[in-house]
Amino acid sequence: TLKKLDSQLAIFVWVGTFFLCMSVILDYYVYSTYCQGVYPEKFWHIPQVYAMIGVLLELLCFSFGLGYKNKLAAQERNQLQTQQAQSEQKALSSQLNSHMLFNCLNSIRELIAQNKNDEAEEYLVKFSVFVRGVLETSEKSKSTLEKELEVSASYLALEALSFDDTFNYSIEVDENVDPSFISLPPLILQPYIENALIHGLSSKEGEKWLRIQVKDTGDLVKCIIDDNGIGIQDKTTLGPTLANPKQSLGRKLSEERISVFNKIYDTRISVDTINKSNGKGHSVGTRIEFQIQY
């Protein structure tokens, strides 16, 4: 690659050298023709004019060549950075998929251990539908909000089997939002939904719900994942299992993937985690807000 850039720069150098040599020849010709003992009256009969033109042309050729070389080098550098970012995103996606599938298989194991064979069979059927959607999405470097909502619906239907009848979920999209035109990293919503189910709702007593809402706020689209689980603060009161200060693996990987995705496609996607409170210092759920500028 460096040899290629140097050869392209050499072309400009040779062209500039040609102009300089021609100016020297013209300089000698004009001097010998019009300047023998007299000072020329016309400026094009002055030898130094051709010398200066030759030097100027050589400098211009060299400057253009150097600028062209720098431009190609910058393009190649950006291409390499994009390839590296895409490789990082695929690696993060692979880690996410393995983590996600492990949790699903663990749910199946628990159903079988509890002798809930009918539920386990239904879970496997929905699991196959979910895995198909995951495989179709994860192979791509870019997905759409529409596809992500479809995969999320499959995952929620899958995990709903692990809960009792007290769990409800819904997905709502504003009429003026077309999710098929909004680009997102593949499987970006799923880890946050998984985190809400496993860490927020599984240990909650009573009614449990999770809502996904897509809203148009004018200058951006918000994709909101809202639940009425135990929230963030109250996890510290439930023992060492839920009091782990580390962020869930899927959520951490997702934040890294958003950063990489923004660099590759020059998008502006951010995510905020809001701990909902009842005003008395007790958490009443978690709200995840994706802010997507398009």
Structural write-up:
With 294 residues, the chain is α+β, with helices and mostly antiparallel strands. The chain contains six helices and seven strands, in the order H-H-H-E-H-E-E-H-E-E-H-E-E. The protein has helices at residues 2-34, 47-113, 117-138, 145-159, 190-201, 249-265; strands at 143-144, 167-173, 183-184, 208-216, 221-227, 268-277, 283-293. Strands 2-4-5-7-6 form a five-stranded mixed beta sheet, with helices on one face. The longest helix has 67 residues, at 47-113.
Please describe the topology of this protein.
Layout: H1 2-34, H2 47-113, H3 117-138, E1 143-144, H4 145-159, E2 167-173, E3 183-184, H5 190-201, E4 208-216, E5 221-227, H6 249-265, E6 268-277, E7 283-293
Parallel strand pairs: 2-4
Antiparallel strand pairs: 1-3, 4-5, 5-7, 6-7
Task: Give a concise summary.
This protein has 294 residues and is an alpha+beta fold. It contains six helices and seven strands, in the order αααβαββαββαββ. α2 (47-113) packs antiparallel against α6 and α5 (190-201) packs antiparallel against α6.
**Assembly form of the protein:** single chain
Structural class: alpha+beta
Q: Residue share in helices?
A: 55-70%
- Principal-axes shape call: elongated
Uncertain stretches: 234-247
Number of strands: 7
Report the average pLDDT across residues.
Answer: 76
Total helices: the number is: 6
Task: State the separation between the terminal residues, measured CA to CA.
Answer: 36 Å
**Radius of gyration from CA coordinates:** 33 Å
The ordered string of helix (H) and strand (E) elements is HHHEHEEHEEHEE
- Biggest sheet: strands, sense, closure? 5 strands, mixed
Write out the strand line-up for the largest beta sheet, numbering strands in chain order: 2-4-5-7-6
Proportion in β-strands: 15-25%
